[in-house]
Known about the structure:
Blueprint: E1 2-3, H1 14-26, H2 36-55, E2 64-67, H3 70-81, E3 88-92, H4 97-107, E4 111-115, H5 125-132, E5 137-142, H6 154-163, E6 167-171, H7 183-186, E7 190-194, E8 205-209, H8 238-249, H9 254-275, E9 280-281, E10 292-296, H10 302-312, E11 314-315, H11 330-334, H12 339-342, E12 345-349, H13 356-372
Parallel strand pairs: 1-11, 3-4, 3-5, 5-6, 6-7
Antiparallel strand pairs: 2-8, 7-8, 9-10, 10-12
Helix pairs in contact: 1-8, 2-8, 3-4, 9-13, 10-13
Pyridoxal-5'-phosphate binds near residues 96, 173 and 194.
Amino acid sequence: MIYLDNNATTRPLPEVICSVHKAMNELFGNPSSMHPLGADARRTLEASRETVANGLGAISASQIVFTSCGTESINTAFSLLIDERISQIAISSVEHAAVIQAASRWARGRSILQIPVSRDGLLDVDALASFIQKAPSLVSVSCANNETGILTNIPAFAEICHRHGALLHVDAVQAAGKTPLSLSDLCCDAASLSAHKFHGPPGCGILYLRTPNIRNFGGQPILPGHQEFGFRAGTHNLPAIIGTAIAVESLRDGASAYVATGQLRDRLENRLLSLISGSQIHGFTVSRLPNTTSIYCPGRNAADLVMRLGQLGLAVSAGAACSKGGEPSHVIQAMGFSPERANSTIRFSLSRFTTVEEVDESALLLKRAFLSTLPSTL
Ligand code: PLP
């Protein structure tokens, strides 16, 4: 099977699998326990935190909170950052479901603006600025869109937010491991990441907090507890945390890999555009993740294509892997396209391990799938 669904999840690195296995055998002590096994676990936990902080460009290890996934990090950020001073929330209209749902869950009656985007998927900065100057706000936007890969200039957004006294949370789940990322350079108040998106293990999310003292937050953690500086309750998933640190370390030499992935993605797109008549790539002319292609295949139902491609030995997806079955992508529609087009869009997402042979074969497989699926009736 050729795997081009790396925005859904990635294959854990062999060294990640080894480290998780070893930790489960040898480091099963609870980091909160007082005995030597607990102390060993605690030391390894803090060493992993240090590695993650260094590798992701945080200033201090205390800015890193381990959670269970991106969704938990996002919800924790909202629950901590929203206090009685915050009276409104802004998210973009192309956010992942995890952010949309966290915003409506933690808003508790506050108004929520969905920042509009252009046909190229770029956020309307003026709409955001005129909203947040009205009242103290929490803003949450993603670095990189999970469906289209379109990038947002986060430091520029942070400047606008902070000029108007708004707090900024960044969903960096798709950015980590796919494009260079330094948490400090984002200039945000909080950011969320997820290890399984960058060849780490499932079961470990990262929440970055610029000012990590719990007393700096007017909001509450989701559940009170003593773990993770009081930001999260529950026994640590130490094997997954150790595996996450290994995955972060592997990003050290990422820059050249990202360039190579981008060249493969461009090769794939050139082939797809010439093989599928009338096809178009979303965000073709703007900055995107180097691994992502969102392609409109006119007259075909994306779910049919994805099923057929699966039978042919290629794993891709129709929009977000976790979108509700059958519903046309809200991302493509927010960019001003029709539900029909949204329903005819599939996503290829490469990894830094994708090969040129896989790319060439995938283009031919899409052509075969396109010819062998019936035109959609939507
Ligand atoms: N944010 C984005 C942009 C995502 O793509 C995803 C997962 O696809 C999430 C958040 C949620 O991450 P997790 O699956 O680790 O909860």
